[in-house]
Design goal:
Layout (H helix, E strand, L loop, with lengths): L15 H11 L40 E6 L2 E2 L3 E3 L5 E2 L1 H13 L2 E6 L5 H6 L5 E7 L2 H4 L2 E3 L8 E6 L9 H4 L3 E5 L3 H9 L4 E5 L2 H9 L5 E5 H9 L7 E8 L2 H4 L3 E6 L3 H16 L2 H9 L6
Parallel strand pairs: 1-5, 1-6, 9-10, 9-11
Antiparallel strand pairs: 2-3, 3-4, 6-13, 7-13, 8-11, 8-12
Helix pairs in contact: 2-10, 2-11
């Protein structure tokens, strides 16, 4: 299997705190209102689905489950953040509460610093974490995971007036495609779009600026970061997604799951059951559309 360069993405770094500050500085959205506006002429986002509708997840015996102490990060909008009145909000926050409601168990959601979240689970100070923790071999050594509840796909973004309607190797042949240097996105682009003219940038911000100025036919990068930028004031309606999403696990990871203490199959299975039910009942879709009006899928 082809080896990839280290994945440098705002949603996959170990140093999540500094990444969150960069996201907060780079994207503008109304946290006081929570509900974000869908840009004019934007299509309704496709809702990602990670649960097999043919598989019937059995609810385990919850007699011993008094409640779930969820941990989140409150410096990572729009996944988790603190409102002006001090209340916690965000996609992860509402999903955690939805899990508890589905299971009909008591729920607490407490914020912690990113670098202490897994340790809190290991030490029994937290039962589960809905904190955008990537499912990786390294993290599996310390915690178990639910099924993924979102993934971090790669996407192409192009100027709104561009004639480009799709993003496949044939349509991008000879096109100038920007990408952040030394990332899995660069490795993927060079491997699967060999006839594109690749232009690298040292930062994602520099890449987005070049796209907005019209210097590129398209940019390739982290779909979530691009979706937040496209929905923000900085993009000013300049651009939109084309093609994709691209979800090759060897390049872009297995996704993000709810982390639980190791050797706690009852809680892990209960969370899987609740996630599937939230999807079936449309609750997951409502949350996705609420926080990602420009979807990353």
């Amino acid at each position: 299997m082809r080896k990839t360069k280290p994945f440098k993405s705002v949603l996959a770094r170990e140093n999540r705190g500094s990444a969150a500050r960069r996201m907060r500085a780079g994207f503008s959205f109304a946290v006081s209102a929570v509900l974000f506006a869908l840009p004019a002429n934007a299509q309704t986002p496709a809702i990602p689905g990670f649960w097999d509708p043919q598989h019937r997840e059995a609810l385990p015996d919850l007699a011993a489950l008094r409640g779930i102490r969820f941990t989140i990060e409150d410096d990572f909008p729009p996944f988790g953040f603190t409102m002006a009145d001090g209340a916690l909000a965000g996609f992860n926050v509402e999903l955690a509460r939805g899990i508890c409601e589905e299971l009909k168990v008591a729920c607490t959601v407490q914020p912690r610093r990113w670098d202490t979240i897994i340790a809190a689970i290991e030490e029994g100070r937290s039962d589960a974490a809905a904190a955008s923790i990537a499912i990786t071999a390294e993290n599996r050594k310390r915690v178990d995971f639910s099924a993924p509840y979102y993934k971090t796909p790669a996407r192409f973004a192009a100027p709104a007036k561009a004639e480009l309607t799709d993003a496949v190797p044939e349509t991008l042949a000879g096109k100038t495609i920007g990408v952040e240097a030394r990332t899995a996105h660069e490795a993927y682009l060079r491997a699967f779009f060999p006839r594109a003219s690749v232009r690298v940038y040292e930062t994602a911000a520099a890449l987005r600026s070049a796209l907005k100025r019209g210097e590129l036919d398209a940019a390739f990068g982290d779909g979530i970061s691009l979706a937040l930028w496209l929905n923000g004031t900085d993009a000013a309606g300049c651009c939109g997604f084309r093609g994709g999403p691209f979800t090759h696990a060897a390049y872009f990871g297995e996704g993000v799951g709810i982390a639980v203490r190791k050797n706690n199959p009852v809680l892990r299975r209960a969370i899987d059951f609740a996630l599937k039910r939230l999807s079936e009942r449309g609750v997951y879709a409502d949350l996705y559309l609420k926080y990602f009006p420009v979807g990353f899928y």
